[in-house]
């Protein structure tokens, strides 16, 4: 097995292989999230679209590995690990931190390769050029846990398990550190079309800040607003999947 393939197996999970799919969707989790968050997406889009989920270090089956504390480091590693998955047209989908990460991966791919990246879906995240004033990563464990509960991104059963939280907290803190210390440089827009999904009651991302994604692409742009808070994608998954399917398969 080649080094590139081994690296890819470390960073990505394919929950529903779809060898006949004409397009692939690479999904990037939110802060504290894991590849398994996208298991329902994989099942919902297969077999017409093959879905793979990124698995960042420091969680689940990679829990013994050191976490990466910057978006740049994560983007560098993921871009390299994507190489074996670039054998067919593909798109990136990122929610919250994953959206910023998807944008940085797009920039790297467009700068150094001729791969068939056809779309970027950015969900639940302000545009990269909008500065962050968040400092969740500086809180103690209880403060971070309170933020997770407020965003309703993790099942209450898990939040109530102190052992699981203690195991996951280093990864959660590292992710919050990465996204909250991210600073966008002034490079030009990407060529890749961008579709943005936003929740109308998301306390972390205003609609105005989400609309500014338009400034980050020279390609087509679409903007969709859903009822709900930060994890509106879970509440409206059927609608989100329909839009993804239509976008990627309409050609």
Descriptive overview:
The protein is α/β, with parallel strands linked by helices and 251 residues long. It has a single domain (3-249), classed as Rossmann fold (3-Layer(aba) Sandwich), CATH 3.40.50. Helices cover 39% and strands 16% of the residues. It has helices at 3-11, 39-45, 71-81, 97-112, 141-151, 156-159, 162-180, 207-211, 232-235, 237-249, and strands spanning 12-13, 23-28, 49-54, 90-95, 117-123, 194-199, 221-226. It has a 7-stranded mixed β-sheet with strand order 1-3-2-4-5-6-7, with helices on both faces. It is globular, with a radius of gyration of 17 Å.
Low-confidence stretches: none
**Alpha-beta classification:** alpha/beta
Strand order within the widest sheet?
1-3-2-4-5-6-7
Would you identify the CATH H-level superfamily? Alpha/Beta hydrolase fold, catalytic domain
Count of DSSP helices?
10
Mean pLDDT over the residues: 90
Please give the largest β-sheet: 7 strands, mixed
The total domain count is 1
Order of helices and strands: HEEHEHEHEHHHEHEHH
- CATH C-level class is Alpha Beta
State the shape: globular
Strand content: 15-25%
Helix content: 25-40%
- Supply the CATH architecture: 3-Layer(aba) Sandwich
End-to-end separation in angstroms reads 35 Å
Q: Report the CATH topology name.
A: Rossmann fold
Query: Count the strands?
Result: 7
- Using only CA atoms, what is the Rg? 17 Å
